[in-house]
Amino acid sequence: MNELRSPIILGSVVLYMILCIVVGLWAMRRTRSAKDFFMAGRELGIMITGIAIFSSTMSGFGFVGGPGLVYSLGMSSVWMVITVSTSYAAADFLLGKRLRLFAGAFDCISLPDAVAARYGSEVTRFLTAIAILLGILGYLATQTLAMATVLQSILVGTGYFPEVSLITCVVISSSVLVFYCVTGGILASVYTDMFQGAVMVVGGFLVFLTTLYVFEGGATAAVATILRDDAEAAGPWGTLGMIGCLSWYFMFTVGAAGQPQILTKGMMIERVQNYRWVPLVTVLGYTLTALLWVSIGLVMRALVLSGAHPELASADAAAPAFLQQYAHPVLAGIVFAGLFAAIMSTADSFLNIGAAALVHDIPRALTGRSLTHELFWARIGTVAIAAFAALFALYSYYANARLVALLGAFGWGTFGAALVPVIGIGFNWKRATPLAASVAIAISLVLNFTIEVFDIRLPHNIHGGTVALLASMTIFFLISFLSPPPVLDPDVEALMEI
User: Fold this and answer.
1) What are the helix (H) ranges across 255-400?
2) Residue 60 needs a FRET pair 20 to 30 A away by CA distance; which of 51, 158, 204, 336 works?
3) Do residues 357 and 419 touch, judged by C-beta distance below 8 A?
């Protein structure tokens, strides 16, 4: 079976990419309007919604970036994983039902639509759309880089393409992604989520079991090997330290209430009362798939330290290397296909959100009306955003060697800092004002991108997104308290009292 390892893995990925093209063509026939393209007609069930939410959070961020972070920083990134028990529940409690009610009452087809309805401000809609566009750069770059890294590892591993470049793999994977997204919109994403969710959960659990038997002596011996090399890495805070880990914990817990890939999926559910079951599906799915995040990173680090495996060219190669060399070929093929499914669906989700901001919300904020032939321009906008994200991914990789998960953390921090005050707090607090919302978004973006662009290292490894989130929340409360109470639309006030 081992001699067929490379053909099985490559065949699984090729079959999945063909499936993506077929699904895109099928979904295109069901996508007749901008509402279908951006909101899947608001007809999603409990399982599809729950799986779509957890898979859009895990995907390349967790399957590729997560093991890479554990390999390079030890246990530090586990503090991203354990937030799931509170972050999804908090986002659901604060916003789940209310956002869906806003979407139905005001016929919202995007998150900025709901923000504009809540605050009665086109300036706030415009700034929300800008924040979403900037935030998706980090996330889309994460998915693009993860997909290209995995594809390069597979092609090189076959021996048929020993010198294929990362740039070539970015072009190949992005081309399939763009076709999939442009033809089917969000429908193409959500209707493959059941398949990818099942593969991610089952495959992640089986890979976790595999990691227990790969290292001689088992998991205990693997951890002992890491302890001998660097006791700090195997400790509860990893190499990042306590303050740095807690800053990640804060950002990923509180920041969940500002993630458009989570909030927008909640707006698509068919029945409002069904949303109470969504967090259960999401938490269970994420918890099982997160086993892969921690286990592969630790085992690969132990294998390298013990000399059983050569040094990795990049920490992000930990998951592909493990699957190609230590997992059963059939399992590796299934997991790789599931990984591509997760990345493709997540990237589709972000491209869809970005296209809505670009061709729906910004024109409405500036001119008061949508573009003519909005569905056509949504597809054009999708291509443009995908191309820009691919260039940003390559720049991030070659200019400063950013790990996949750190790009994802930047995207999460950008969304959280900009949107938690405006949406997570503002949709639950009548005293919040449009001015406070607009200033909070602007300040958060300036802080986040200043820290990122100038590579500012904060004391105790505190994440820049945490600082930006704390600053935007503080400013949001201060301006709201110092401003005259806003006069709410009666319909908005009624929805906020439910």
Assistant:
1) 260-266, 278-306, 318-325, 329-356, 362-367, 374-400
2) 158
3) no
